[in-house]
């Protein structure tokens, strides 16, 4: 029996596995910080929960999508992370209300009453609407005060740079909802940060 082909295949598999592990390592280094900020805001500062959600998302990504390119990993990872977050929120909602299993648990408590027709730039800058006197840490604290869906829309659009369509896929909602959540997030941030920057006062209605 000729074992050469199998040996060659084994070496190829090992090299491929090593390449995947290396790509995943760099990918994790790139997104972990931002993902943790997003999850800490979404879980009201529960760092342990946030870390668990991010770690579980990485594990699921590696298990199910190791063959995808690094560029494909970004939206896939945040889609998985969003699903992990929604699962956690459902469990928390049911734990807080023991009889909630008799009714549908609504996680979009900040869902818009009506979709606003707003312009949504394709490559927003998280600092573009703020004076440089406002620090990133102050913005992060203000983001934590936003409703969860607004947090997600802002972080995915402004911090991660996803377009509206990709953000809608990650959040499992319509593009109109993303635009509305993002628009309201910016308004909320301007209002929260206006005391730090007088130039922001009265600007929240200009969107």
Describe this structure in words.
The chain has 207 residues and is an all-alpha fold. The protein has two domains: 4-100, no CATH class; 108-207, Arc Repressor Mutant, subunit A (Orthogonal Bundle). It is 64% helix and 0% strand. The protein has helices at residues 4-42, 47-65, 70-96, 136-143, 148-159, 164-171, 175-193. Helix 2 crosses helix 3 (70-96), helix 3 (70-96) crosses helix 6 (164-171) and helix 5 packs across helix 7. Belongs to the sigma-70 factor family. ECF subfamily. InterPro entries: RNA_pol_sigma-70-like, RNA_pol_sigma-70_dom, RNA_pol_sigma70_r2, RNA_pol_sigma70_r4_t2, RNA_pol_sigma_r2, RNA_pol_sigma_r3/r4-like, WH-like_DNA-bd_sf. Residues 45-95 form the RNA polymerase sigma-70 region domain. This is RNA polymerase sigma factor. Keywords: Sigma factor, Transcription, Transcription regulation.
Q: Features of this protein?
A:
sigma factor activity; 207 residues; mainly alpha; Arc Repressor Mutant, subunit A; transcription; DNA binding; 7 helices; sigma factor; disordered C terminus; 0% strand
* Number of E-type strands: 0
Oligomer: single chain
Q: Let me know the average pLDDT.
A: 78
The CATH homologous superfamily of the largest domain corresponds to Winged helix-like DNA-binding domain superfamily/Winged helix DNA-binding domain
Structural class, by secondary structure, is: mainly alpha
Which of globular, elongated, flat, extended, rod-shaped describes the shape?
A: globular
Order of helices and strands: HHHHHHH
| Total helical elements | 7
InterPro entries: RNA_pol_sigma-70-like, RNA_pol_sigma-70_dom, RNA_pol_sigma70_r2, RNA_pol_sigma70_r4_t2, RNA_pol_sigma_r2, RNA_pol_sigma_r3/r4-like, WH-like_DNA-bd_sf
Domain RNA polymerase sigma factor 70 region 4 type: 137-186
Organism: Acinetobacter larvae
Keywords: Sigma factor, Transcription, Transcription regulation
């Amino acid at each position: 029996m000729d074992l050469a082909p199998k040996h060659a295949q084994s070496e190829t598999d090992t090299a491929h596995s090593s390449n995947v592990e290396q790509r995943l390592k760099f990918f994790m280094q790139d997104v972990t910080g931002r993902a943790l900020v997003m999850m800490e805001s979404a879980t009201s500062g529960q760092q342990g929960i946030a870390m668990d959600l991010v770690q579980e998302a990485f594990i699921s990504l590696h298990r199910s999508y190791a063959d995808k390119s690094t560029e494909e990993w970004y939206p896939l990872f945040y889609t998985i992370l969003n699903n992990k977050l929604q699962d956690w929120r459902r469990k928390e909602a049911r734990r807080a209300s023991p009889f909630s299993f008799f009714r549908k648990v609504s996680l979009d408590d900040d869902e818009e009453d009506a979709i606003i027709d707003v312009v949504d730039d394709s490559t927003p800058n998280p600092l573009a609407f703020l004076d440089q006197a406002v620090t990133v840490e102050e913005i992060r604290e203000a983001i934590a005060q936003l409703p969860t869906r607004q947090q997600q829309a802002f972080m995915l659009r402004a911090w991660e740079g996803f377009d509206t369509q990709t953000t809608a896929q990650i959040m499992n909602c319509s593009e109109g909802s993303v635009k509305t959540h993002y628009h309201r997030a910016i308004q909320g941030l301007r209002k929260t940060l206006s005391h730090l920057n007088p130039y922001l006062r009265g600007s929240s209605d200009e969107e």
